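Page 42, continued from yesterday. The earlier attempt failed because a stray header line got pasted into the input along with the sequence. Redoing it now with the clean sequence only.
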Amino acid sequence: SSGITPTVTQSGPCTIDEVHHTVTLTSSTDTCTVTVHQAADANHFAAADLTATLTGVKRPQTITLMAAPTSAAYGTSFSVEANGGAGSSQLSFSVAPGSGCTAVVGQSRSFTMTSGTVSCTVNINQDGDSDYLAATPLPVVIAATKTAQSALTVPKSVKRKKNFRSEEHTSELQ
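This time it went through. Structure tokens are written below.
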């Protein structure tokens, strides 16, 4: 401890806070090199430089399901709501192949059940960006339910015959 104040320099995408003795990477994909140098004085030799190399790492992100029905009846529409991670990429919603639903055109989070027996799987994705990894895809399964049929009615315009009798006809083969 010579009392000589060291100097700190950096090269690459980072900043140095000498007051709080912290280095902050400003890029998740590049490398920053920090060098600490303590000069000589009349009573001390210069200290050997200390060098540290910091490499940025993309951070993970998570998709959180906010709302989705557990089941939907044939012919009904429903929405699936989710929040993405901190990255700049938007969430994308798609119907898994073989699912019993279709996406509503022009409404990325709305779907219509096209089956009363085959469940619907909506896949939610979020791409990565310069600072964040792609989120793990989130599949949301909505069970299909059948829709009740309307009661059948006979229109009043149909006339009913009274005393209807059936006649049996036979024929002989020759």
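Notes: The CA atoms of residues 43 and 139 lie 68 Å apart.
Reminder to self: strip header lines before submitting.
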